[in-house]
């Protein structure tokens, strides 16, 4: 039996050099981490978010680690926005290989006090935006016979409830899990893979309230999460980038429709 290239050179399975990734929410903690990791490995990045200054800073950092990037100040609030993000990538690099949905938000509040609009905003940011991006980039992949790689950001909250007023967030992450599975099955015939990472809590703007000592609900939420994590700590973005690299590289070519729990053991207990 001959030794295949994948066995002789296992790191070649993780090769993302020259691949073009569109990242929404690129100004956020996970989006930035993903951009830097791919950029450092020779990837080309299309960075999208609503904040120009923060985007420009990530762009500068990607270049500092040796990557190539363009930035587009846009959130995927409509199909038109999603197509503009996609087209910025096509214009800059001529192709798109990977799609990372790192945009998202949370508006915690108990349902009896929560405004419907807050619930809808969370659903729109976390689910509708992913759907628009999937439609825009997926159509391009299908029309051009490209086997793409899509990565969504779910959460353990897609599977578990939370006493801290998470009706919008939990519902949106349950929908993210479902979108991951249905796109994976719909696109399997094209060779495109669709997977999600589901963390517990990692440090970001989204979770800053859990690190704020004056925020009572935040402190209680953080303590409750910690008590449920066997590895005994909250995550940092570097805990997630290895999984992201796996899901965006040829190493994961036979893995699709999966919700990968990078959660310190939260869902194991
Ligand atoms: N941090 C955690 O503990 C944790 C745990 C589990 C899952 N996640 C998920 O991981 C993903 C990334 O979160 P993160 O922690 O990296 O958050 P983050 O640092 O707050 O970044 C969120 C990104 O989304 C964009 N964004 C914010 N509100 C938006 C909206 N309404 N519509 C569209 N885009 C919006 C932000 O950019 P602009 O404001 O510039 O547009 C930013 O780039 C999210 O889906 C989140 O639910 C996070």
Give structural notes.
α5 (116-143) links the parallel β4 and β5 (149-153). This protein starts with a helix and ends in a 7-residue tail after the last strand. Helix content is 45%, strand content 14%. It has one domain (16-202, 236-261): NAD(P)-binding Rossmann-like Domain (Rossmann fold), CATH 3.40.50. By secondary structure, the chain is of the alpha/beta class. It contains nine helices and seven strands. It binds NADP nicotinamide-adenine-dinucleotide phosphate. NADP nicotinamide-adenine-dinucleotide phosphate binds at residues 25, 27-31, 49-51, 54, 75, 102-105, 125-126, 129, 153, 155, 199, 201-202, 204-207.
CATH architectural label: 3-Layer(aba) Sandwich
End-to-end separation: 42 Å
Mean pLDDT: 96
Using DSSP, what is the number of strands?
A: 7
Sheet with most strands = 7 strands, parallel
Task: Please write the string of helix (H) and strand (E) elements.
Answer: HEHEHEHEHEHEHHHE
Total count of helical runs of at least 4 residues: 9
Structural class: alpha/beta
Structure ligands = NADP nicotinamide-adenine-dinucleotide phosphate
- CATH superfamily, please? NAD(P)-binding Rossmann-like Domain
Identify the CATH class. Alpha Beta
> How many individual domains?
1
Q: What spatial form do the alpha-carbon principal axes imply? A: globular
Strand arrangement, major sheet: 3-2-1-4-5-6-7
Contiguous low-pLDDT stretches (5 residues minimum) are none
